[in-house]
Amino acid sequence: MLPEKNFELPFIPERPTKPRKSGITMMMDKGLSLKETENFIEASGHLTDVVKFGFGTSYVTQNFEQKIKMYQEAGIRPYLGGTLFEAFFARGMVKEYLQMLDKYKLDLVEISDGSIIIDHDEKCELIQSMSKERTVLSEVGSKDSGIIVSPAKWIKWMSNELEAGSWKVIAEGRESGNVGVFRPNGSAHTLLINRIIAKIKPDDILWEAPKKTQQVWFIKLFGQNVNLGNIAPNEMIPLECLRLGLRGDTFFNFLPDDYAARLKQVNDDDELVEED
After folding, report:
1. How far is CA 100 from CA 58, 60, 132, 138, in A?
2. Looking at residues 49-75, what average pLDDT do you find?
3. From CA 73, how far away is CA 98, in angstroms rounded?
4. Fewer Cβ atoms within 10 Å of its own Cβ: the N or the C terminal residue of the chain?
5. What's the pLDDT at 222?
């Protein structure tokens, strides 16, 4: 399914159809009501690949099972935040966690260790085991800004988890966008990211990028079909416009060079006239 178009416009970059393997957009649901979920699906369901019930919100969300069905019927794959998996793991309840996934018919699962320390070999064993019956997303990076992970470890962990059976590895950024692959001020940790993509295929990574500046940065680096996550419900359409060059931040990214050069020259000439 392609995003709906209300009119034709040339030089719009191509986006793959759903279900996609690249260009994935993950929305973060932190407690939408049924009515808000219905409204979200009506407005942005066609642009949404997966929905994460953020951190432990699924524990206290009302009408949870009904929300899951609403997303699934709209062709969106919901899953539970990695922090909830860690809460079960910390209590020695992995078996119960899998039973709960079966109860709600969730075929997408996140395995993370952002809040607690899990031996990496054990994490990979969990990925390998769960990937036999489910699609696994695994997250790399700590939610604690005080914990610095070397680029070599990022690469090793991502590579091992993909080999173990992860569909995508999630690059930690949190909903705040100031840890993991981002610096405390929210800017991209370019050295780390460049080291990662030298060894790991970008299509295998889902970058958590809740802020517009971060989304723009990744789109300019990887193009319109970069995988992005932790997107707020009301930012799904604005993000798609960034992907398509229909916002000022990416306006010239997808225009032919001669168009871009001519338009930029016109702008420069206008500025000169104003100065005169």
Report:
1. 11, 15, 17, 19
2. 96
3. 22
4. C
5. 96
C-beta of residue 189 within 8 angstroms of C-beta of residue 209: no
**pLDDT single digits (tens) 259-276:** 767 876 755 555 544 444
Tell me the one-letter amino acid at 32. Answer: L
The two tokens of residue 178 are: 């100031």
Instruction: Name the residue with higher pLDDT: 242 or 114.
Output: 242
Distance between CA 58 and CA 100 in Å, rounded? 11
Residues in the chain: 276
Lowest-pLDDT choice from 3-7, 154-158, 264-268: 264-268
CB-hemisphere CA count at 13 Å for 248?
Answer: 0
Report whether pLDDT(167) > 70: yes
**What is the set of domains in the chain, with CATH numbers?**
25-244 (3.20.20.70)
